[in-house]
């Protein structure tokens, strides 16, 4: 059945292309944060282990919200490592990192997602897509706060 929600098909496609990149970034950061949760060591272990768990749990919930918005706009959400690898702006973690390196890497990831979300705002705004704008605003707030919290751990 044809979608008739007041947003033109071409605008929906542009918005969902951006949301697909946001989904890929979010899922990639989820994997990275979960990896760091498992593998962090050092004197800050307990605090970082807990912080990383809080952040990856929030990211896991976010991927569902983003994918469901893509579906509500009539497109299929990417859902494979291969698709995410093509779309993400976040590099995968390789090897073993120190706790400080993990924190700095996660700051970059949080900031990257905030930038990806921000890049979609003009497209969603042009189409008067308030639900997407609301989602993007929430994502930017969360990622900017997470980046700040992580940055505050670095001397």
Label this structure with key terms:
mainly alpha, Ferritin_DPS_dom, 155 residues, oxidoreductase activity, acting on metal ions, elongated, Ferritin
Query: Shape, please?
Result: elongated
Order of secondary-structure elements: HHHHH
CATH topology: Ferritin
- Cα(first) to Cα(last) distance is 56 Å
CATH class: Mainly Alpha
Characterization of this structure:
Belongs to the Dps family. GO terms for molecular function: ferric iron binding; oxidoreductase activity, acting on metal ions. Residues 17-154 form the Ferritin/DPS domain. Pfam families: Ferritin (PF00210). With 155 residues, the protein is mainly α. The protein has one domain (9-89, 96-151): Up-down Bundle (Ferritin), CATH 1.20.1260. 75% of the residues lie in helices and 0% in strands. It is built from 5 helices and no strands. The protein has helices spanning 9-39, 45-72, 81-87, 99-126, 130-151. The model has no long low-confidence stretch (mean pLDDT 96).
